[in-house]
Amino acid sequence: ESDTASEISFQFSKHKKTPSIGSHSSDMASVSSVSGSVLSVYSGDFGSVDAQGTVEFALDYDEKNREFQVHVSQCKDLAVVDEKKGRSDPYVKTYLLPDKARMGKRKTSVKKRTVNPIYNEVLRYKIEKMVLLIQKLNLSVWHNDPLGRNSFLGEIEIDLASWDWSNRKLNWYPLKPRSLSAVNGVDHRGVMSLSIKYVPPGSLGPKNPPSGEVHIWVKDVKDLLQLRPSGVDSFVKCYVLPDTSKKSYQKTRVIKRDTNPVFNHTIVYDGFHTEDLKDACVELTVWDHEKLTNHFLGGIRLGLGTGLSYGISVDWMDSTQEEVAFWQEMMLAANEWIEGLLPLRSL
Fold first, then answer.
1. Where are the domains of the chain?
2. Which of 41, 77, 181, 193 has the most Cβ atoms closer than 10 angstroms to its Cβ?
3. Inter-residue contact 211 to 198 (CB < 8 Å)
4. Domain at 190-344, CATH class
5. Any idea where the C2 domain is (predicted)?
6. Peptide bond preceding 261 in cis form (omega within 30 of 0)
7. How many C-beta atoms surround the C-beta of residue 128 within 10 A?
């Protein structure tokens, strides 16, 4: 049924039960640095002002350097955030959607105490033209707060497939309220097909198995983000959190040039007590393999999503309703394969 069967011992010792948000391994650090929440386009938005005003910018693609350039010129008549002081401290932020994970955000400097900021800055993306044309540009304006309570001031979203690339002039665009596309559907990263099973200790005979086992069968992934014309070279990483040690880490082989890779890879973690299932979380992440660095494409977290692990508040115990239901079904059906089809998301 699978091309690889990996078996890893998973022991929850005392020191494993006190993880902190900053205790991730280097792999986990790279996940957090390139992604963020599903709504990372609007992360840190604490404001309630209405969008108003305009923004002037120009778009260009440098064929020689294979670089997408956003020339942000200025804004006019932005909303006032601090009405008592009559001030806003605006900056401009851009994303290429849906590929936030790979490309990240770009932003201008902050201009203080003005609703008519002048930037004259160029935000640059190294990206192939063919890949760029399947993206959307999300350009948004924000008020910068020293405490991180930034306020959304407006945005514009451009479908780059239909953009007139002969137009390199600066043009004015009205800022609009939030686009629903950034909340619904734009973050679609693909769907993973998998099965999981829990085998309680002694359930197959006397002392067989000697400890509980969680079996994870990664079957395939469909509709991955296409990062280059030839497709994507993908693989799956697996951890059982809170353990981020090398003992917990497993990965599949790399499937090249395929946005619908078939992995057919099974992993077995032993050392489980039944009560551990309430506090553990299986994290499966999909990555694009490149020589210098791997790029995060999306992932799932299977657990109860309580926000707690062994009484400690952790940011990774954040399973969605679908992921929680999948994990609960496994807990209730010992020794049975539970099949699932779960959407990948930012983590």
1. 43-174, 190-344
2. 41
3. no
4. mainly beta
5. 51-173, 188-317
6. no
7. 12
**Are the CB atoms for 144 and 17 separated by under 8 Å?**
no
What residues does 136 pair with on adjacent strands? 97, 159
Residue by residue, pLDDT tens for the chain (347 residues) are 333 444 455 554 433 333 333 323 333 222 322 223 333 454 455 556 888 999 999 999 999 999 999 999 999 999 998 777 777 999 999 988 865 444 567 999 999 999 999 999 999 998 888 888 888 898 999 998 877 678 889 999 888 888 889 989 999 999 988 764 444 444 567 889 999 999 999 888 888 888 899 999 999 998 887 777 677 899 999 999 998 888 888 999 999 988 899 999 999 998 888 899 999 999 999 999 887 778 888 899 999 999 999 999 998 999 988 899 999 999 999 999 999 899 898 87
Q: What is residue 101's three-state secondary structure? A: helix
Q: Is the pTM of this model over 0.70?
A: no
Token couple for 266: 């099974």
Cα 20–chain centre separation: 20
Per DSSP, the three-state class of 40 is: helix
Closest CA to 130 of 231, 57, 34, 59: 231
What number does CATH give the domain 43-174? 2.60.40.150
By DSSP bridging, strand 212-222 and strand 191-199 are: antiparallel
| Distance (Å) of CA 297 to CA 21, 41, 130, 256, 288 | 22, 16, 18, 14, 7
Q: CATH topology of 43-174 equal to that of 190-344? A: yes
* Nearest CA among 272, 261, 200, 192 for reference residue 7: 272
Q: Which residues pair with 312 in a beta bridge?
A: 309
Most distant CA atoms of the chain, gap in Å: 77
Stated as kind and residue range, the H or E segment containing 100 is: helix 100-103
